[in-house]
Known about the structure:
- The chain has 246 residues and is mainly beta.
- It contains two helices and 13 strands; from the N terminus they run αββββββββββββαβ.
- Strand 2 (75-81) and strand 3 (89-90) form a beta hairpin.
- It is globular and about 60 Å long.
- It holds the Pfam family PLAT.
Amino acid sequence: FRYYFPCQRWLAVEEDDGQIARELVPVDEAFVKKDSENEGQSPATLGLEQKAKSTTYTVKVKTGDKKNAGTDANVFIILYGSKDDTGIVSLKASKINKNKFERGKVDEFTVESVDIGDLKKIKIGHDNKGNSTGWFLEWVEIDAPSLGQCLKFPCGRWLDRSEDDGAVERIIFPAELQTVEYTPFVPYEITVYTSDIFGAGTDADVFIVLYGSDGGCTQQKSLCLNKREQRMYFERNSVNQFIVEV
């Protein structure tokens, strides 16, 4: 057998979702072959195929509001499911704060993985490197839109060689009473055509809401991940494609 693992994504802290390691899923040969029969396969169509085989998790991490609670160390997380685990994922680029893991702050990260089943527990820790390494972790919240589930992992302990029990990594289980179930999200391929008239392009934060025949609608979803993408896309006379989970 021959397997194809396309990526077409950045591995950079300042690009895309900020991850510097990616777990790739195999796709059908037709999505990568460059011949006359397959000219219609767009990058977005390929992205939709990959998204259907993977799960995107939004990971929120709350640093406690205590003296010296923040850390400069490199923080990692492992998600354990009923089928598999994600392996070590570095939490490099917070989507909310430039300076991550500061006292009293909540940081948000994106983690992508193949199907690991129902989320059972997590391991979170740091490498104890840097000027200020000790960290007081309040809680971790993990939201999986494609599964329709949001779980809270309370901690309330130090990850510090000189505090508590001296451990710098901890295994945490979800609080069942704080688990939220909702309608699972579905990935859509969105193609946007910007007109070819003077001033047609925009650098604004373009969003989309989808309405169904029964009157229900999705949440508002931004098409760009960051301000850099806002400057890149929606230029005059351009066609942009996005994979959006709503």
